[in-house]
Specification:
This protein is α/β, with parallel strands linked by helices. The protein folds into 2 domains: 205 residues, 3-Layer(aba) Sandwich (D-Maltodextrin-Binding Protein, domain 2); 91 residues, Osmoprotection protein (prox), domain 2 (D-Maltodextrin-Binding Protein, domain 2, 3-Layer(aba) Sandwich), CATH 3.40.190. It contains 14 helices and 10 strands. It is globular.
């Protein structure tokens, strides 16, 4: 089964404010961390930090809770059940602001959102400009998310949209088909079927969304900034270890949490993350993994405000804090 699209907008259940954090007992701080999907290569750095004791060395006892199609970790974060959560893209922190939910992004582990469009080779669909006016299978979340960027940048229209049922079968059956996907997921399934697709990464066309952002409550940032810093630092170190060290410890835990995951798919994910610079590129090359900048946030917000997704008066700066990143943690001197 191919990966279900990441949730972009919050449900009405998130209207409640976050509950106060409970006091911590002596010893390692207990931390509950929710991911945005079932265990996979895109969570490798966090699993590496858990498997190799990096979190423990930072005084943290982390309980990592995988997500899934029936799990709303954003809601659990807002309710205070989780301490940290992965926000899949830059929309979620901005939506917290729009809905007056006191949550904030404290790091962006992905400099590039892994969202892609996929087409068949040899059909003249080798770039984003060529796809203008052609039918494209996308889901409802994509329609109110990255599709807005494609409309502004390349002149796509809603008339191009076709339903997407999160299966690659229609794509494989039609050489003219074009669909949405995730860099480390659908292309793997398509290639296993003997088709070598054209894969177009939206980030490389100027789509400014971050990915795999660590979100937490503004209360935790205010009350326990040291804990937040330790969690961010340990997660960053985990990502360096996963990508440039021995990923075997993380792979073992990923497969334990998700028995459907295979070594082949994890290795494919690692290779694509490295090839496309998903984690370690751009600002991360200068300031370290997890880097964020106000300019990047402003660019993304401005694009989406022009598309009508957000009101121009929304204070986008309150969706994130640079307090815990850009410190070159884990970088070789």
């Amino acid at each position: 089964m191919t990966r279900v699209a990441r949730r972009t907008f919050l449900g009405a259940a998130l209207a409640a404010a976050a509950m106060p954090q409970r006091g911590r007992a002596a010893g390692p701080d207990q931390v509950k961390f929710g991911t945005d999907w079932k265990a996979e290569a895109e969570h490798g750095g966090y699993y590496q930090a858990l498997a190799t004791g990096i979190y423990r060395r930072h005084g943290l006892e982390v309980s990592l809770r995988p997500g899934g199609p029936s799990v709303n970790h954003a809601q659990l974060l807002a309710a205070g059940v989780l301490d940290f959560n992965i926000a899949s893209n830059s929309f979620l922190p901005l939506n917290y602001v729009a809905e007056n939910i006191p949550m904030v992004a404290v790091a962006a582990m992905f400099q590039k959102d892994p969202s892609v469009l996929i087409a068949h080779s040899g059909e003249g669909n080798d770039n984003f400009t060529a796809l203008k006016g052609k039918p494209i299978m996308i889901g409802s979340d994509t329609r109110v998310g990255s599709w807005q960027f494609l409309k502004q940048k390349f002149g796509y229209t809603d008339a191009q949209i076709r339903p997407y049922n999160f299966s690659v079968a229609p794509f494989l059956a039609n050489p003219k088909a074009i669909q949405q996907g995730y860099l480390t997921s659908e292309p793997f399934t398509i290639e296993k079927a003997g088709v070598h697709p054209v894969v177009l990464l939206l980030a490389d066309a100027g789509y400014a969304s971050y990915g795999s952002l660590i979100a937490t409550s503004k209360k935790l940032v205010h009350d326990k900034p040291d804990l937040v810093q330790r969690f961010v630092n340990a997660s960053i170190e985990g990502w360096y270890g996963f990508l440039y060290g021995d990923p075997a410890p993380a792979k073992a835990l990923i497969k334990k949490d998700n028995p459907e995951m295979t070594d082949a798919l994890i290795d494919y994910g690692i290779a694509k993350i490295k090839q496309y610079g998903i984690v370690d590129s751009g600002d991360a090359k200068v300031s370290g993994i997890g880097a964020m900048t106000e300019a990047r946030w402003h660019s993304f917000f401005d694009t989406m405000a022009k598309a009508g997704v957000y009101k121009p008066a929304l204070d986008y700066r309150t969706a994130f804090t640079l307090q815990f990143v850009n410190k070159k943690i884990g970088m070789k001197s």
